[in-house]
Specification:
The complex is a heterodimer of chains A (182) and B (110). By secondary structure, chain A is an alpha+beta fold. In chain A, a hairpin with a 2-residue loop joins β4 and β5. In chain A, α1 packs antiparallel against α2 and α2 runs antiparallel to α3. Helices cover 42% and strands 34% of the residues of chain B. In chain B, α1 packs parallel to α2. The radius of gyration of chain B is 12 Å and the shape is globular. Classes of the chains: A alpha+beta (182), B alpha/beta (110).
Chain lengths: 182, 110
């Protein structure tokens, strides 16, 4: 059963995370590793990228997976700043990073779950679709990058807050694929 | 992110270093469009050798630059893409629309 990991500060300006996100399966257990309380400010993105890169490296993700995680969280935060908060600085965003175990056995995959919470404008579900890449024009690529990079991408809106849940499982190395006969 | 512009053999090279993200892509966009739209430089080379990261706003600025160069009949060339930048280009499926070279020597020779 999924652990109740949400224990956000009760400051008025800080997004809270509900006790249940409604995400994840019953066989997945998550354990909080890190929680960042940010203000919406593009200048903070480089700090988040550096933090997540190191976290993913420590969790032994390969370089390619590490870049995917960093890219996805960066793009998601940029979307929160630009769209949910309309570019307004100083608005609260919480980034939670959890170790996610898929199954009970030690050899079961261990992933990284990242949940972004903000108190900005509700997302328009119609805008949550990746645009066609045949169209050559600036903009609209961020969501495509996130969907291409992560194993799970889930949006939800609860109690006036937006939640984005991202999960990445390590890509098996070539040696591991060969062992499994893939 | 740092941007420096130099001229060589009638071409303008924009050297970009650092991360091109939401905070810094407007600076690159301004430098790029300044050369293409305002100065109407016939050939602009963007040196990305020291760019560690580029996000979708950075890619959007490159697309905007490319469109502006096509509008006036000039050329915009990219070179020195790191694996991380190349990966983002591939994700956006845009690598085929840009003129991309491995290094400055090749880019200048075209």
């Amino acid at each position: 059963m999924r652990r109740e990991i949400w224990s956000f500060d009760s400051q008025v300006s800080t997004p809270k995370t509900p006790n249940k996100t409604g995400a994840g399966s019953a066989s997945e257990r998550s354990e909080t590793l890190l929680r960042l309380h940010l203000e919406s400010n593009p200048e903070a993105l480089c700090l988040v990228r550096a933090t997540l890169q190191r976290a993913a490296e420590i969790l032994q993700f390969q370089e390619h997976d590490t870049r995917a995680i960093v890219r996805s969280v960066d793009e998601a935060l940029a979307n929160v700043i630009r769209h949910a908060y309309g570019g307004q600085k100083g608005q609260p965003i919480v980034v939670s990073c959890n170790r996610l175990r898929k199954g009970e056995k030690p050899e079961d995959p261990v992933g990284l779950e990242i949940i972004l919470a903000d108190s900005g404008e509700a997302l328009d579900p119609g805008k949550l679709k990746s645009r066609s890449l045949q169209e050559i024009r600036p903009g609209g690529l961020g969501l495509h990058f996130i969907k291409e990079s992560m194993d799970v991408v889930e949006f939800s809106r609860k109690e006036g807050q937006n939640f984005l849940r991202l999960v990445k499982y390590p890509t098996p190395s070539k040696a591991e694929k060969n062992e499994k006969g893939d | 992110m740092l941007i420096a512009t130099r001229q060589t053999e009638g071409r303008v090279i924009i050297d970009v270093s650092g991360d091109i993200d939401l905070a810094h892509s407007p600076v690159m966009r301004k430098a790029l469009l300044g050369e293409i739209k305002e100065k109407k430089t016939p050939k602009v080379l963007l040196n990305l050798r020291n760019v560690r990261y580029i996000d979708s706003s950075g890619i959007a600025s490159l697309v905007e630059g490319l469109k502006a160069s096509r509008d006036i009949g000039s050329r915009m060339i990219l070179y020195g893409l790191s694996p991380a930048v190349r990966e983002v280009m591939e994700l956006s499926r845009l690598q085929r629309i840009f003129e991309i070279y491995d290094n400055e020597e090749q880019a200048l020779a075209t």
